[in-house]
Amino acid sequence: MSGDGQARSHWFDDEAGPVVRPYAMTRGRTSHAAQHRLDLIAVVVTEADVDDPEADVTLSPEHVDIVELCRSPQSVAELAAELDLPIGVVRVLVGDLVDEEYVHVTRPVPPAELPDESILRDVINGLRAL
Fold first, then answer.
1. Which of 41, 70, 94, 109 is the most exposed place for a label (fewest CB within 10 A)?
2. Interatomic CA distance for residues 15 and 23, integer angstroms
């Protein structure tokens, strides 16, 4: 068999990195019940009464890292970048932490719900006229 044929039978890429690890971190889950609220711009913040997440033996090291990072507000995208984890994995882990009340998630106001710029200009002009 030629070297080219052997390369085709080699089904994984050495540079792909760990493939099993994200699967193991999420215990095989690819989504979470709270997933619908966890888009890329959703902001995750650690609850005020959380002192030492490392004391909870049920949390994985990645869960603890998320709790610590979210002491200042972080978007889901920022967490994924900081932890060097896929977005799907971060969503599952954050969902776990929401369920356990370690963090809460807020979403920025959608652009469709923001006041129209022309209305704001009219209000400012009206205030100036007073």
1. 109
2. 18
- Torsion of the alpha carbons at 68, 73, 77 and 82, rounded to the nearest 10: -40
Task: With both helix axes pointing from N to C terminus, report the angle between 61-69 and 87-99 in degrees, rounded to the nearest 10.
Answer: 80
> Phi then psi for 129, rounded to 5 degrees?
-70, -20
- Order across the sheet with 74-75: list the strands: 74-75, 43-46, 103-106
What is the rounded distance in angstroms from the CA atom of residue 116 to the CA atom of residue 107?
20
CA distances for 79 relative to 25, 38, 87, 95, angstroms: 15, 12, 8, 13
pLDDT in tens, 107-126: 876 666 667 788 888 888 88
